[in-house]
Every structure is written in structure tokens, then in C-alpha cells.
Amino acid sequence: MRQPLVMGNWKLNGTKASVEALVKALIEPAAKADGVEVAVCPPVIFLGLVEKLAEGSRIQYGAQNADVHTQGAFTGENSPVMLKEFGCKYALVGHSERRTLHAETDDVVAAKFEAIQKAELIPVLCIGETLSQFEANETNAVVDAQLKAVIDRCGIAAIANAVIAYEPVWAIGTGKTATPEIAQAVHAHIRAYLAGFDADVAAKVQILYGGSVTGATAADLFGQPDIDGGLVGGASLKPDDFAQIIAGAKR
């Protein structure tokens, strides 16, 4: 049985004071969430603070981005090896905001995925379609292509040591959420697509849903057979809301 995972993506938000308050507020909900893994992805500048605050708790953490290089003349980039040194377990890769705002192609995402795994971090591969693609019934083709780029570079076995996050771009930060039925249908398709390469990998990989998840929608979404938790944006910055989402993942 796949373990549920609820991960907060704080994006470019936070201060020293707010990060401290947020992590401290999440320690108890994470401790009470038997069978659910709780993780947060703060801005990289706060990783050292989160490392200190989360010590001894059940809270895991990761980075929002990682570079393909581990060191050298790459000003402003985040080495996956350095992220590992700060205790990160995860690194997001392929988030729609990176794909659109920073022009990261499927090939770039695949290269970053590979670098993250080589540093012994777990990549959280974000995939999903835009509103126009959704309305054109291109969802399955889009997510297939995004997955295929990684499989072509790293092999299907690499997916066994990764997390997939399906995030319909039209539902990120918009307040719109795919219905549990729509989300489940895409998650089932993703798992079936992966099964075409390796059924065992497909059965075991965690697939998260992301896109305006709230405490009110979490239980119905996470109750679907192929949805293994969530990658949560805005609500992860609100301790009470995030705690409710965590509780919604318990099985």
C-alpha cells in the first residue's frame, strides 16, 4: 500500500518569523498523522532554518528547484549536492511556474530530474496541462510527453525512486480544483501509462494531486484510489488549513 504524502510548496513566501511560526505549528499535526508523510518546500534561503526547526519532528523538507550542476560558475543556482547537505529529502522539478516563467523544457526537466537523483534526493516531478490543453482534451497527451522525456533519459526504473505530482495548470492558484472524478481519471491514466513500461513501478509510485487543494476538498480528493496525497500551494502557508489537509490524507 502506498503511503500518503502531503507536501507544502511555499513558493516565494515567508520571513524568518513566519517560517518559524509555521514549522512549529505543523509539528503536532505531523506527529498525529499516523501513516501520512508531511513535507514542506520553503524558499531555499530558509532551508537552514527549517533544518533546525524540524529536527526531531516528523516533518520532512525539500527544495523548490535544483540545478543540473553540482558546483562551478553558475551564479544564483541551487546545487542538488548542497541541498542534500542541508538535510533535504526532496526537490521539486518541472513545476509549471518553472516551465513557463523560466522556459524549462521537458528536456531540461529530465536533466534536472537526473541530477537530483544522482545527489540522492527524491525528485517530485510536476506534470500537468494548461486550460487550453484541457479544453482541447489534450491532457493525457501532455502528461504522457512530460513523463516520456524523463523515462527516455533516466529509464523507467528511475520513477521508482521519485514522486509524481499532477498539477493541472488551470487549477494552480486560481481557486479552481479538478473534481475528484477528473483528478482520479488523470491519475489512473498516469499509472496506466507507466504500467506500459513497468507494472510494478506504476503500482508503487506515489502520485500527488496539486491545484488549489483546501481542507474542504482534501478528503474527497485523497480518497480516490490513485491519488496518494497532495502538493499544496497557498493553503500550506496557513497552519490550520494545512493541518486539515494532512488529516484528510489519513487512511
TrEMBL record:
Mind listing the GO molecular function terms for this protein? triose-phosphate isomerase activity
Q: What is its main location?
A: cytoplasm
Its annotated pathway reads: Carbohydrate degradation; glycolysis; D-glyceraldehyde 3-phosphate from glycerone phosphate: step 1/1; Carbohydrate metabolism; erythritol degradation; Carbohydrate biosynthesis; gluconeogenesis
Q: Which InterPro entries match?
A: Aldolase_TIM, TIM_sf, TrioseP_Isoase_bac/euk, Triosephosphate_isomerase, Triosephosphate_isomerase_AS
Catalyzed reactions per annotation: D-glyceraldehyde 3-phosphate = dihydroxyacetone phosphate
Taxonomic superkingdom: Bacteria
**PROSITE patterns linked to this entry:** TIM_1, TIM_2
Q: For substrate, which residues are the binding ones?
A: N9, W10, K11, G173, S212, G233, G234
The top EC class is isomerase
**E.C. code:** 5.3.1.1
Q: Which UniProt keywords apply?
A: Cytoplasm, Gluconeogenesis, Glycolysis, Isomerase
The record's subcellular location field reads: Cytoplasm
Q: Which family does it belong to?
A: Belongs to the triosephosphate isomerase family.
Q: Which NCBIfam families does the record associate with it?
A: tim
Q: Summarize the subunit comment.
A: Homodimer.
User: What is the protein name given in its UniProt record?
Assistant: Triosephosphate isomerase
- Species: Pseudaeromonas sharmana
Mind giving the lineage of the organism this protein is from?
Answer: Bacteria, Pseudomonadati, Pseudomonadota, Gammaproteobacteria, Aeromonadales
